[in-house]
From TrEMBL:
<comment type="similarity">
    <text>Belongs to the EXO5 family.</text>
</comment>
<protein>
    <submittedName>
        <fullName>Exonuclease V-like isoform X2</fullName>
    </submittedName>
</protein>
<dbReference type="GO" id="GO:0005634">
    <property type="term" value="C:nucleus"/>
</dbReference>
<dbReference type="Pfam" id="PF09810">
    <property type="entry name" value="Exo5"/>
</dbReference>
<dbReference type="GO" id="GO:0036297">
    <property type="term" value="P:interstrand cross-link repair"/>
</dbReference>
<dbReference type="InterPro" id="IPR019190">
    <property type="entry name" value="EXOV"/>
</dbReference>
<dbReference type="GO" id="GO:0045145">
    <property type="term" value="F:single-stranded DNA 5'-3' DNA exonuclease activity"/>
</dbReference>
Amino acid sequence: MNVLNDFWNDDDQELANIDVLENCVNCENISAAQRLECDSIIRTKGTPQICFRPEYLTVSDLVKQQWCEQQLVYSLDPGIYLIRAPPGMVVDIEETPEQKLVKKKGSDIHFQRELEIQVPIQVNIETKEDDWGVKFLNLQFAVQSFYNGNRLAREIPVFGVPFDKDVFVYGIIDELQYNLNEYTVIITELKTRRNSFPPKQGQIRKDKYQVSLYAQLFNDLVEGRFSKELMAAKLQLNINAQFSKSVMKHITQSRINSANKIHTLGALIDAVLTQVQAMPPVHFAKVEYIHQETKQVISVVDFCLDFQSLAEQYSRHIEWWLAKRDLPVL
């Protein structure tokens, strides 16, 4: 199977598959005064969403928040961290060479796994509408591969407005496993680790939250809770604008019904959702941890998705992005 690759940056890959967060700032050492000052600085610029993510959040943003909200703030605006540094303290907000190497190794492993079942194809895009068209095409390719008898799809884009919270979210699922006989889909996330020890419970909670968000976005697409009009409004897209020739070429080569009649993002969304909504929703998930050096499996965490618990956590996180609460005081 071929997947399309464009020149736009997909922020959700920033931390997606590497456990570098184990060495993050210790939130317990941050005082109430520091948290309030951070909130005050942010509020002078607008809500956190308007200030940092005016169009959409990535799943990675929310995963960082689940791990440590204060570190999320520092990553969004390093200047806040510099303001809070004691006088005379030398602060380095750049990634260390070791952290960069860890990320590269993790990314390389994921790219190798992707190449096992699909080959990325470079696509030149000219507009935001082209960019999102490519994302929908990659979603369609994944679903079409299941209809063609394949059991695996990797690097599947998902997006939407989870739990009707009026915030658009985008992410990339690591892997979907489809069982045609049982008509079930399982979502899988691969995490690479520098050491060969199983992850701690805090790490597992973070990773389960990430996978659960992916599942919610996928299920919203499958169960008809996606609105192209809301997407257009949030992302400032013209869903009636014509695609560029490069994107049109791949649409006509796809196996979408009446592909030769699809010229706009709105028409493509309708066609792709028709196929997606024939899929079953996801109820089960697993996180697989492997050692970066040996590629050996360290542990596998299987779990049933708990969307009620997810909704509570997600709602709490979104409240901060919409400036409905301050950072918590520990």
